[in-house]
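$ ./design --mode recover --in tokens.txt
reading tokens...
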């Protein structure tokens, strides 16, 4: 069952509906908040909007790469089974 969780990310308070527990949702929010702040303050000194977009691209890139790697591993696993 989805529950409401209130998180603050980059100074914005949001209500998030999730089936995950409160602690997990807060951990995700904290990781994202730190990443955005790091980009804005320490790295590129970019705007909040730019930092949000860079984070989105970074996480999407990681997700796509992991999905591709998983598919390749499945294909290699299936290929090995076919040879037996």
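writing sequence...
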């Amino acid at each position: 069952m989805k529950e409401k969780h209130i998180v603050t990310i980059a100074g914005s308070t949001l209500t998030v509906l999730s089936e995950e527990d409160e602690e997990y949702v807060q951990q995700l929010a904290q990781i994202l908040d730190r990443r955005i702040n790091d980009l804005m303050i320490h790295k590129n000194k970019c705007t909040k909007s730019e930092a949000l977009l860079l984070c989105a691209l970074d996480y999407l890139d990681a997700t796509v790469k992991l999905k591709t790697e998983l598919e390749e591993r499945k294909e290699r696993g299936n290929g090995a089974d076919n040879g037996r």
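exit 0
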